[in-house]
Specification:
The structure holds three protein chains of three kinds.
Chain A: E1 5-10, H1 18-32, E2 36-39, E3 53-57, H2 63-75, E4 78-82, H3 84-88, H4 100-108, H5 112-115, E5 131-133, H6 140-152, H7 163-169, H8 194-197, H9 214-223, H10 228-245
Parallel strand pairs in A: 1-2, 1-3, 3-4, 4-5
Helix pairs in contact in A: 4-10
Chain B: E1 10-19, E2 24-31, E3 44-49, E4 53-58, E5 69-74, H1 78-84, E6 91-98, E7 111-117, H2 121-133, E8 141-147, H3 156-164, E9 169-174, E10 184-185, E11 202-207, H4 210-222, E12 230-233, E13 249-250, E14 253-254, H5 255-258, E15 261-263, H6 264-267
Chain C: E1 7-11, H1 12-24, E2 29-34, H2 35-39, E3 48-52, H3 71-74, E4 78-85, E5 90-93, E6 100-105, H4 107-121, H5 127-134, E7 136-141, E8 166-170, E9 174-179, H6 182-190, E10 194-196, H7 199-216, H8 228-232, H9 239-245, H10 253-256, E11 264-270, E12 276-283, H11 304-323, H12 333-337, H13 345-354
Helix pairs in contact in C: 9-11
Classes of the chains: A alpha/beta, B alpha/beta, C alpha+beta.
The complex binds flavin-adenine dinucleotide, iron/sulfur cluster (5 copies) and FE2/S2 (inorganic) cluster.
């Protein structure tokens, strides 16, 4: 059996260092030794090249993106959305920001970004997606898990429970007990609660679980003096598209 | 470890695969140690596809002196899909048999009303064939079989020969027919007006999807069957089959231990049993 | 000293030496530490956790409650059960090999371990758990600090008769050390500066315990915990389940931090070349939305309120009917760590008792 051919595409992606993520993925792909990477993304032609698995980064932000992603979908046997921008749309990934002032600026700032232009949306809003590798940035281990599952022909295990589960297994002190707030209780697990383990809190970069308890989330944020509008902003920060859709 | 792991499956080889419908395949499985499973009708095994996972599957063949046994699997997710992708000669893992079985001994001499909805025929087939191998030990036998559409009917050839038997009454229906379907249409309870029973002598044995039970039980009660004359087999999520993982709980009951076969009278007041 | 000492006295300094001796003999000892010492997050100070210790100084015996109960050593958050080759198919079981001394376990947590022992030794036995249990030495300690949300005093969990190898009680200048097993007796022989406890010291231990119990009574069940199974009868439709679960995140925290919760999921993992793999189990919880969900999307406990209720029935009635134990020992971990503060068993049970 010849090795599955993998192509990487990117759309409107991280404002952070995209290349780093791509390098990470390709590094992982090399380690896997199970696949053949067919083209460097810059040189990629959606229409002509032959590939089995398409890894798609970035969100769909323009009408023109739609045609491109549809062409990719048609060619690829398996299409995987990689990273928060691709999986949940969100704002474009901003890595490692833990700065509360930024959030406030964001929440209170020009919201036009959300409503005027063609709102950024996840890949799945335009074409069916076979698997999502959530996170901003993605978790390398999870990426490998997903790829292995796809190569085995199985549906990857993507948790549909909150980050709190990972957080408990990691043995962390819940930041709520320390008077900080946290998006963990409504955010999809799978990252191992890495931010909490490292002393921060969860910003919700993996998007919401399928059935988040938004009443409880509002109540929780309210306890920290954050209003419903701000709470919504918190969610929009990463899962704006999903939130609007709801 | 001083004692063996209860999670360690025995290896088994797929001897034969038969496509039943677009969704279901029948597998003939032979344990590599050559020993018969030793199951009773209604019990299940945990089937492993290594690297994919494990899931509970009913044994569909009647107990037998031979090592070969049969399972019939609907593709529903990872493990079942993986099973469908295997071919004869491939090796899988088997643990079990687990769970309670149909009360084959207690029912000797009784009239039996089998109610099989969809995949429910799979475990019932084990019992029906068991009874037919000992036909004179049991009283009257009525088999009701309901499928969604004609294309979803399992064990077509076997069922056809069943239907021809003089010592058994066979009635079937499909929810939705097609151009070629000449038989009954409607849910399985629409078959109940078509026969009479002696409720004192008769036991109903029902296996089907969760929605079936409430209606089928009401229909059986309407025929005068007491609750302890109704036997059901219930499905729950299962991760261990050993009464440990907690997934199969139904109130205080662990379905993998006290079930899957239950006397309806024993569970009818359980909050979560048949909702 | 006497060979059959059942209640010994060990000086504080002696205890120090005892721990040092255990470490010197290459035992793996886990004990309670301040979380900040483990996580390096300064704000984590004041929370406690079990972690390996390398010197007696690292050990805390005056903790109130740990974040995660010692079950993590008996039923690890992730535990490999089997390893296999994909083709040709072959498979073998993984056996736990480490010996472990858990130093400093409160009575309520020992009771929880005793309950787990029952669950996993019920036929069909779970030998993975039992093997780990056999290889684990438990050194208990009576609480001196009471966790703000603890209510073990009203759950019959203030003292424990068995399940430990040694049990320590701080009576001021020294500890009373009770021997609970043969293993404990031989460990005691390793301990320097021990002597048989005098009757007055045994009385002092009673006093210390009564004192702690009284302080723990600040939160309490308003009735005898043995009434729980009958109290819960017929309360399935009570408004409290809907009302309280309205704020439930289905986050499973109340399950995962509970010393008596033992549910798990089983998953397969494969190596990077897809040739080998392992099967492991990992903590699961009945509050998580897909806990009872089967292929095709059917969910036998699809409603938040049903899951929320299930846990309280498990604690107060189901486990009792199955194993004869009330499956809440009053550690207060769920109460303290639930993000919506709706998991507190006494809040729910007392309200059911009031009948409103
Ligand atoms: C006692 C019993 C007997 C059964 N007999 C048969 C049979 O004869 N033929 C057949 O086709 N199916 C049968 N099933 C259903 C079958 O077990 C599920 O379809 C199967 O578990 C789906 O697993 P999966 O990995 O393919 O799906 P996934 O959706 O990938 O499942 C993930 C995991 O969830 C668990 N799970 C999901 N659905 C179920 C379920 N319905 N029951 C129990 N666990 C579940 C499994 O542990 C599985 O590994 C039976 C179920 C039970 C409880
Ligand atoms: S810190 Fe956040 S993710 Fe962790 S348990 Fe608390 S709320 Fe959940
Ligand atoms: S803890 Fe939250 S913010 Fe951090 S990686 Fe996980 S989901 Fe993203
Ligand atoms: S800890 Fe609280 S919010 Fe989380 S599942 Fe339990 S009751 Fe619900
Ligand atoms: S239910 Fe809560 S208080 Fe009771 S033992 Fe479990 S975690 Fe502790
Ligand atoms: S309360 Fe829930 S998670 Fe805990 S043991 Fe019971 S069923 Fe399992
Ligand atoms: S399947 Fe694990 S307890 Fe029943």
């Amino acid at each position: 059996m010849s090795k599955p051919r993998v192509a990487i595409f990117d759309f409107a992606g991280c404002e952070g260092d995209q290349l780093q993520i791509v390098n990470l993925e390709e590094g992982v792909l090399d380690v896997l030794g199970q696949v053949e990477i067919v083209t460097w993304r810059e040189a990629m032609k959606e229409q002509s090249d032959h590939y089995d698995i398409a890894l798609v980064e970035g969100s769909i932000t323009r009408k023109g993106d739609e045609e491109r992603i549809k062409a990719i979908r048609e060619k690829a046997k398996i299409l995987v959305a990689i990273g928060a921008c691709a999986t949940i749309g969100g704002i474009n990934c901003i890595k490692n920001f833990q700065d509360e002032k930024f959030v406030r600026r964001y929440v209170y700032g020009d919201k036009a970004h959300w409503y005027n232009t063609y709102a950024a949306r996840p890949v799945s809003a335009v074409v069916p997606v076979d698997a999502n590798v959530h996170g901003c940035p993605i978790n390398r281990e999870e990426f490998v898990q997903v790829l292995k599952a796809l190569l085995q022909g199985k549906k990857p295990f993507i948790p549909d429970y909150p980050v709190c589960v990972d957080c408990k297994k990691a043995g962390n002190v819940c930041v709520l007990l320390k008077g900080q707030f946290c998006m963990g209780p409504v955010t999809r697990a799978g990252c191992g609660a890495c931010c909490i383990t490292e002393g921060a809190y969860c910003w919700g970069c993996r998007g919401l679980v399928d059935d988040p308890n938004m009443d409880a989330a509002r109540e929780l944020l309210g306890r920290f003096g954050i209003s419903a509008g701000e709470a919504l902003g918190q969610i929009r920060l990463y899962d704006g598209y999903g939130e609007e859709a709801r | 470890m001083g004692s063996p792991s209860p999670y360690l499956p025995g290896l088994a080889t797929i001897m034969k695969i038969e496509e039943q419908t677009a969704m279901e395949k029948l597998f003939v499985v032979r344990p590599n140690d050559g020993k018969p499973l030793g199951h009773k009708p209604g019990q299940f095994v945990e089937v492993s596809v290594f690297g994919v996972g494990e899931c509970p599957i009913s044994v569909s063949s009647a107990p037998n002196k031979k090592a070969d046994f049969e399972i019939c699997v609907r593709r529903a997710g990872n493990v079942t899909n993986a099973l469908h992708n295997l071919k004869a000669g491939d090796v899988i893992g088997i643990r079990g048999p687990y769970g309670t079985h149909f009360p084959v001994e207690d029912l000797k001499g009784k009239d039996l009303l089998f109610v099989a909805g969809g995949l429910g025929i799979v475990p019932l087939r084990s019992f029906i064939n068991y009874v037919l191998e000992r036909r004179k030990d049991y009283g009257r036998i009525i088999v009701l079989f309901g499928a969604r559409t004609p294309a979803d009917r399992l064990f077509k050839a076997e069922i056809a020969s069943l239907a021809r038997r003089p010592d058994l009454e066979y009635l079937e229906t499909v929810d939705v027919g097609d151009a070629s379907w000449k038989g009954n249409m409607g849910v399985i309870t629409t078959l109940f007006p078509k026969f009479t029973i002696d409720p004192k002598k008769t036991y109903a044995i029902m296996v089907g999807p969760p929605v079936m039970y409430r209606f089928a039980i009401a229909a059986a009660r309407a025929k005068g069957l007491a609750d302890d004359h109704i036997i059901v087999s219930l499905e729950r999520k299962m991760k261990c089959g050993l009464g440990k993982c907690g997934h199969c709980q139904m109130g205080p009951v662990y379905v993998c231990q006290e079930g899957p076969v239950f006397n309806f009278a024993a569970i009818k007041n359980l909050e979560e049993a048949l909702s | 000293m006497g060979g059959d000492m059942n209640l010994a006295i060990i000086e504080k300094e002696g205890l120090h030496l005892f721990v040092a001796e255990l470490l010197r003999r290459k035992n793996t000892v886990v004990g309670v530490k301040d979380q900040s010492a483990v996580s390096s997050i300064p704000g984590d100070s004041g929370f406690y956790t079990y972690a390996p210790i390398n010197s007696p100084e690292e050990l805390t015996l005056s903790f109130d409650v740990t974040l995660i109960p010692p079950k993590k050593y008996l039923l690890p958050a992730y535990e490999q059960l089997l390893t296999f080759n994909l083709s040709p198919g072959s498979i073998k079981a993984d056996a736990p090999k480490e010996e472990l001394i858990v130093f400093g376990v409160h009575p309520y947590d020992i009771i929880a371990i005793n309950q787990m022992d029952k669950v996993f030794s019920t036929v069909p036995q779970d030998n993975h758990y039992l093997e780990r249990r056999k290889r684990t030495t438990i050194i208990g300690v009576d609480p001196v600090k009471i966790a703000p949300r603890a209510f073990w005093s009203s759950m019959g969990a203030d003292t424990v008769a068995g399940g430990f190898d040694l049990m320590l009680t701080d009576i001021g200048q020294c500890y009373v050390m009770e021997v609970g097993s043969k293993k404990g007796a031989s460990l005691l022989k390793m301990a320097p500066k021990t002597r048989e406890a005098a009757p007055a010291e045994v009385k002092e231990r009673d006093k210390v315990r009564t004192e702690a119990r009284k302080r723990c009574d600040a939160n309490r069940l308003s009735f005898s915990y043995l009434e729980l199974p009958s109290l819960l009868d017929g309360k399935e439709e009570h408004v409290i389940w809907e009302e309280k679960s309205h704020l439930c995140f289905s986050c499973g925290t109340c399950n995962l931090v509970c010393p008596t919760c033992y549910c798990f999921d089983v998953r397969d993992d494969v190596s990077i070349d897809l040739k080998k793999g392992s099967r492991y189990r990992t903590w699961d919880g009945c509050l998580l939305s897909d806990f009872a969900q089967v292929a095709g999307g059917g969910n036998f406990r699809g409603h938040r309120a049903d899951r929320y209720r299930h846990r309280f029935y498990r604690k107060g009635q189901f486990i009792y009917r199955r194993f004869g134990d009330i499956a809440c020992v009053g550690c207060g971990r769920c109460s303290a760590q639930c993000p919506s503060d709706i998991a507190d068993p006494i809040a729910v049970f007392n309200r059911l008792k009031e009948g409103i």
